[in-house]
Specification:
mainly alpha, 3 domains, 11 helices, transmembrane
Length: about 280
Amino acid sequence: MSSTFYNSVYDFPNYMKIIDRLNANIPNDPIPTCPHDIYSEKCDHQSFCRNFVLAQRYLSDLIKKESTINVAHACKFLIYWIYKFVWNDDIYNKNISNFYEQIKKGHDNKDICKIYMEDIDEKTYGYIQKLIKLYSDLSNLPTLNNGKKCSTIKTCFDTYMDYKDTCKDDEYKNFCNELENFRIRYNVAIKSVNNCGEEQKYLPSFQDSPIVPVSVIPIIITSVISLILIISCKFTPLGKWICPRSKRAKNGTKKINHEMNKSQHTPGYQDMSYLVSYQSPNPS
């Protein structure tokens, strides 16, 4: 499952509205388009045939609106919808990619969802459902009266807090990353809600603070000690006890260097250097 699948879930309620609109315009006995050569037994089920037609119409709608929608989110919703509403019975083989290949026929090879097609498992589907419930409640918040708003806020808060232990496990990292996105949207939304008292609480983050690598710790310690010594020398009474020796050593080094430089520029020093290196071949 792609790590980016969860971050499209907040948009799913909007695409579900498209499905509902299209479904309302499909007659009870739609023109059969279900490919019997591919889904021989499945096409005998009226619900499967209807969903096949509905999926075709949804895909056609996406193609028409391609320039005005988030195609990635719309296609990922289609994956979720196929899993939930088409492969909702064990008699069907939950091969989403194969189903997509069938519904896209007749669209002049306009294959806008192919790069997003992937199969999802039961666990992923379950966590998508949890996120959809949270986002659906949040999206409905502006339309509710004050009493209903307060109860919805409390439900969102309690549901979110139920996942605190879940997010301690790296296995659910992608789900918890999207849960963090929900937290941010929720905290912004409730700012405009008044008179809910204790029920109106901001959601805390479950994200861990960054961990400092072990290799960096000695560098940090050294830097802190150096900073403390500098401050102690300059700004505290302890400075005269901590720093005199280092100052004397530093001054002594400067004095030696000065004397060496001075002696190098005297004639005696230069001649001595020459005499040391020269020996006469005829000693007396």
